[in-house]
Amino acid sequence: MEGSLAELIKHFPFMLETVPILAYETAGQHIIVTSDAMNTSPYFSSSKVTRTKLMTNQENEIKIEPNSAQGSSSSQCVSHSQARTASLASKVLRKRQHIKIKDEVETDNVCNVESTKEENGKVLDLKNEKKWEPEMWRDQLANINSMRKFRDAPVDTMGCDVICDEKAAPEVYRYQVLLSLMLSSQTKDQVTSAAMARLREHGCNIDNILATSDQRLGELIFPVGFGKRKVDFIKRTSMILKEEYGKDIPDTVEKLCKLPGVGPKMAYLVMKCAWNQVDGIGVDTHVHRISNRLGWVKKPTKQPEDTRKALEAWLPREHWNDINHLLVGFGQQTCRPVGPKCGQCLNVNICPTGRSNTRYQKVKKEVKKEQSTDCVKMEQFSEDVKIEQHGVGVKVAHSIQAVKTETADEEFWPAIKKDQVKMEQSRDGKERSENSVSQPKKPKRNVKKEK
């Protein structure tokens, strides 16, 4: 029994991997594995080596102590297993060399994180990879600057930094900048400028605004958009500034966005105009619309906040300061929301929206030309038809039926039919006016009177 089992183990050594003990019981008989089978089997050693142990071991060295009870034969088995362990470890290392990632920070050697990307077996450095940017954005920006060189848009004379009192105290001036931006939401610059002028005459500081009633404050800012909500926002914001910021405004975008009625666009513009600090791009409806029309966003955006993130991803920081003021004026004068003046824009050939709009206008002009040629034909026809008045009758020199086939205007034919009637009247020698032409009378309905 022992010999046959030993021979079985020699030919099928993997059976010992599934047997955790040396002696086990099968069908009531005790089967004992002899030491000779243990020595000849490379899988039967004092310590078992697995792939997971090799992967987790940093030094890739596993020390195996031979069992003294097995003698010299067991030491040979251990040496054989060590050789197999070394070959297996080398295979694992060779297979896992390509998984090494550079951007993982090791605990022992803390170094700068370098992002990498593997493409077709080559490791590319994402830090030095070129960022996405529009193809013709520099030419488009230069053209917009040339169109805005006179600075005569409404935002140039009625912007938030212009309609505030620059001679007032710094904290009062910053408070007025904040109020002007809160009023400018969904409101034209002309209306905002007039409302701020009335507030300055009334006294535009925190104490005076808090002492003013809601009804009076609503009358002062009328007719700005959403006036009732803005009155509530102004009162709550003024109270927060008085209690938490010492009658001044916050100096960070995060704190400004926590104020009632203040969004990211207002916060970035307040930081630029009030604190002279550029932390981001203020994107309003004009900047949002023009950026999508020019193709300055990688994908079309629906919200101004998405447009801001897309612009800040590629636009150089040196243009962040003037881009809002530049595009707002351009949107007020040329790239308007309804009826943009693409024919007058210098970017008409390098703007996707401009090319499509001008293509539609060319088709429209061709249709108008065809209509004008039809009108010229009708004028020639009226010149050819000579009407001579002889007393009461009217004579037509040319035959009307021949000319009727050459023109397609249907509005002219009722008048010609009247001329035919007049010609017949002149031939008969009867004098009848146009109003006396007999028309078929409608039959009268028999209406029974109700008793």
From TrEMBL:
Name its cellular compartments.
Nucleus; Mitochondrion
Query: Which intervals carry biased composition (Basic residues)?
Result: 441-451
As its record notes, the protein acts as a catalyst of: 2'-deoxyribonucleotide-(2'-deoxyribose 5'-phosphate)-2'-deoxyribonucleotide-DNA = a 3'-end 2'-deoxyribonucleotide-(2,3-dehydro-2,3-deoxyribose 5'-phosphate)-DNA + a 5'-end 5'-phospho-2'-deoxyribonucleoside-DNA + H(+)
Skewed-composition ranges (Basic and acidic residues): 416-434
Q: Does the keyword Transmembrane apply?
A: no
Q: Does the keyword Nucleus apply?
A: yes
Q: Which UniProt keywords apply?
A: DNA damage, DNA repair, Glycosidase, Hydrolase, Lyase, Mitochondrion, Nucleus
TM annotation in the entry: none
Q: Where is this region: Disordered?
A: 416-451
This molecule's function is given as: Bifunctional DNA N-glycosylase with associated apurinic/apyrimidinic (AP) lyase function that catalyzes the first step in base excision repair (BER), the primary repair pathway for the repair of oxidative DNA damage. The DNA N-glycosylase activity releases the damaged DNA base from DNA by cleaving the N-glycosidic bond, leaving an AP site. The AP lyase activity cleaves the phosphodiester bond 3' to the AP site by a beta-elimination. Primarily recognizes and repairs oxidative base damage of pyrimidines.
Q: What is its EC number?
A: 3.2.2.-, 4.2.99.18
What's the name of the protein? Endonuclease III homolog
Domain HhH-GPD: start-end pairs:
183-333
Main subcellular localisation: nucleus
Look up and give the organism this protein is from: Mya arenaria
Q: What family is reported?
A: Belongs to the Nth/MutY family.
